[in-house]
Amino acid sequence: MQLPDPALVVLVGASGAGKSTWAAPRYRAQEVVSSDALRGIVGSGPHDLDASADAFGVLETIVEARLRRGLTTVVDTLGLDPTRRLAWLAAARAAGLPAVVVLLDTPEAECRRRNSARDRPVPAPVLAAQLKTARDVRRQLEAEGWDLVAAVAVESTADVPVALPDSVPVSAPALPVGDRTSSLGLRSVLQVSRFPWGEEPLAWLTDIARAADEAGFAGLALMDHLIQVPQVGRAWDPIPEPWVTLGAIAGLGTGLELGTLCTPVTFRPAGVTAKAAATLSALTGGRAFVGIGAGWFEREHAAHGIAFPPARERLDELERAVVTMKALWSAGTKSYDGHGVVLPETTSYPRPAGPIQVVVGGSGERRTLRIAARHADACNLRTTDEAELARLVGVLHAHCDDVGRPRDEVAVTVLDLPVVGRDRDDVWARVERLRGRTAAATYAARTLAATVDGHRDRWARLAGLGVTTVFLATPDLGSPEDVLALRGLNA
Ligand code: GTP
Ligand code: MG
């Protein structure tokens, strides 16, 4: 059962229905606001009924404060009082969060049986009154306007949603399943963007690359920057030259494809990039790729004495670069003249040991995606918004149609920068470490923070949108253990 997240989740059910038991493995302890637990804090214990009014006062404050911050809040009370329910619903609406009810629809006899087995059973008449209220609650809930009312069949393992919002079924296309293609039909490439390698750069790189290989990644990509970019780190953090670094990784003999994401076209003449990639292909037995883009970080150019022409010129150069590289990698040494590129000969050895995929990075609709459609093997888009991704794929395909290129010759790849945690607690610990001054809920939403399973669900949707390869860069990748923790994404 997929519940929205973040969201207000109101548990509803009589004593012993299994509300607390349902919530415990699914949510962090801090996300569950329980009237019983608060009775134990403001009163003598979870069953101190004299403390109820104070406990609910604190509960309302906590629920309101968490929702206002956009944080998931699970309200663990009986949930049978319509006035309280509507107040929580209003608070979620005010915060712009989805509001759902999880109805623990446990048979009455089972609630009674569990109740009598407890250390402190609820008095029988009290439970009878709860069960009576619970009989009508489903009808009331449907009238209250919740985004989702999900009934949990507690005795079976199946969760049965009774009222789902409109949803579009995702049909996964039949993709060719090849080497290192996951059961989702995707290949993933680990993009390494930060290099906390301490005193031993080569040892660190070796460990990271071996871990990526072991974790089932299809490839490893390095950023190509002359100064670390502010999105990733500080200007004085190390950011190594990628082709030299990939050469070192090539020496490890892993099964990884190796390349850049992305090389700015401004850094090297295209012929030199073609030479570097062909050399890497020769050294890896044909497992090199080139991600290439127009470049954007003006500061690194100025600092290194490299020209940074206007965008239109960089895009012209990007197109010529792809054409030049392809010409230099093709068989023979004949001259080349096309698409604004004139080469008197295409003598360049070693030739690549296999096809070198050119991935054009960037989502520019008019030029970048047209260059990808016309000349490249793949485009590389950002993923934070699935609707936007679907739209950009449409733009790419329109360019393909327009230039007369079969759509399936241009693979759709994405750059994914999510926070990935082992479990919900780990996800939120990472968010808390990484968020800086950004509000936790905002940072979590921006980085799509989730567990491996959560990201697998999302990646399945990406595959449904036509994505074939995910370039994955987590913002806190520091050790081989961090890489191995991503293994589930490649299963
Ligand atoms: P209150 O807090 O009193 O309102 O009850 P609750 O709805 O939170 O019920 P809770 O989760 O505490 O579960 C009550 C008892 O039922 C506990 O002893 C649980 O171990 C047991 N229980 C809960 N869910 C299940 C279930 O799915 N199967 C079985 N067999 N027992 C369950
Ligand atoms: Mg409980």
From TrEMBL:
Q: Which UniProt keywords apply?
A: Flavoprotein, FMN, Monooxygenase, Oxidoreductase
Molecular functions (GO terms) = alkanesulfonate monooxygenase activity
Biological process annotations from GO:
alkanesulfonate catabolic process
- The question of whether Phosphoprotein is a record keyword is answered with no
What's the short name of a Pfam family annotated to this entry?
Bac_luciferase
Respond yes or no to whether keyword Oxidoreductase is given for this record.
yes
Protein name listed in UniProt: LLM class flavin-dependent oxidoreductase
Q: Where is the Luciferase-like domain?
A: 200-459
InterPro entries, per the entry: Luciferase-like_dom, Luciferase-like_sf, P-loop_NTPase, SsuD_RutA_monooxygenase
- Native organism is Nocardioides oleivorans
PANTHER family assigned: ALKANESULFONATE MONOOXYGENASE, ALKANESULFONATE MONOOXYGENASE-RELATED
